[in-house]
Give the backbone structure.
Amino acid sequence: MKMPVQNPLFPVFLKLENLRVLLVGGGNVGLEKLTAILRSSPATAVTVVSLTFLPALRALAARHPAVQLHVGSYADSFLEGADLVFCATDDPALHRRIVAAAHAARLLVNVADTPPLCDFYLSSVVQKGALKVAVSTNGQSPTVAKRLRAVLEAALPDELDAVLQKMPAIRKQLAGDFAAKVKALDAVTAGLAGAPATWPPPPGAGGRWPWARCWPPGPWPWPAGAPRPINRWMKTKELANY
Ligand SMILES: C[C@@]1(CC(=O)O)C2=NC(=C\c3[nH]c(c(CCC(=O)O)c3CC(=O)O)Cc3[nH]c(c(CC(=O)O)c3CCC(=O)O)/C=C3\N/C(=C\2)[C@@H](CCC(=O)O)[C@]3(C)CC(=O)O)/[C@H]1CCC(=O)O
Ligand SMILES: NC(=O)c1ccc[n+]([C@@H]2O[C@H](COP(=O)([O-])OP(=O)(O)OC[C@H]3O[C@@H](n4cnc5c(N)ncnc54)[C@H](O)[C@@H]3O)[C@@H](O)[C@H]2O)c1
C-alpha cells in the first residue's frame, strides 16, 4: 500500500539575488519577511510597496542599496518586472486580489501567515559559514521550526565551515574519474557520518566529528590532558566510546 506523503513541499535554494522581488506591506510582518530575505540574500533587488513604513524597515532598506521603497497603494503594475511576490499587509481581501493577479502572470506568491494562499513557505534557516540548513514543518508550526533551528545551530560544530572551505581544494587534488573521486570524497568525509574517516585524520580516530574538529590539522593525537572539544551528539551518544 502506498504511504501518504507527510510533507509534499519540494525544497530548493533560490539564487534570490538574481531575481526581482516585490514585497507588499511595510509593517511588522513586512519587516519580518524583508529581514528574512536580506539575511540570506542581502543584495536582492526588493521593491517594497506600502501605504506606510515602520522606521525599522526604512533603516533596514537604507543599509541595502538594492531595496527600493514605494509609498502608496498596491497596483497590479508592480507585478511587471517581478519574479517573486510577498504579501504582508493587514488586508486579506487585497492579498487574495494580489494572488489572483500574480497567478495570471505566472508568478509565485508567499502570503505571510496564510498557508492556503502560499505557493511557497519561508523556512527557519540555520547558517554556519557556507552551510545552510532550511527547516519546514509543512506549515504545522513555525514555532517548532524556530526551536529546531536553535537545536541545529547548537549541534553543528563551527569547524564544519573550515571543512567546507577545504573541500574544493581536496577535490582538486584527487586523481581518477568521477566515480573514483566520489569514492575518495566519501572516504574523507566518513567521519562526519559516524564511521572513521580514512584520510585525514589517521585511521582509528573515533567520534562523530573528529575530522571536522581537527581540520585544518591541529595536534593529533590530542596531547595527554588537553581539553577535548565535544558537542551535544557526542555527549549523548558517543562519549562512552571516545
Ligand atoms: C519559519 C518562519 C520563516 C520566516 O517567516 O522568516 C515562518 N514563520 C516564522 C515565525 C512565526 N510565524 C508565526 C509565529 C507565531 C507563533 C505561531 O503561530 O506558531 C512565529 C514564531 C515566532 O515569531 O516566534 C505566525 C504564523 N506563521 C504562519 C501562521 C499561519 C498558520 O500557522 O496557520 C501563523 C499564525 C498567524 C496567526 O495566528 O494569525 C505561517 C507560516 N509561517 C512560516 C514561516 C511558513 C511555515 C513554515 C513551516 O513550514 O514551518 C508559513 C506557512 C507561511 C509563511 O509565512 O511563509 C519564521 C521562523 C523564523 C525563525 O525564527 O527561525
Ligand atoms: N505583527 C504580528 O506579529 C502579527 C501576528 C499575527 C498576525 N498578524 C496579522 O498580520 C497582518 C499584518 O500585521 P502587521 O503587524 O504587519 O500590520 P501593520 O499594520 O504593521 O502593517 C500592515 C502594512 O500594510 C500596509 N498596507 C495596507 N494596505 C495596503 C495597500 N492597499 N497597499 C500597500 N500597503 C498597504 C500598511 O501601510 C502597513 O504598512 C495583520 O492582519 C495582523 O493582524 C500580525
User: Anything to note?
Assistant: The radius of gyration is 23 Å.
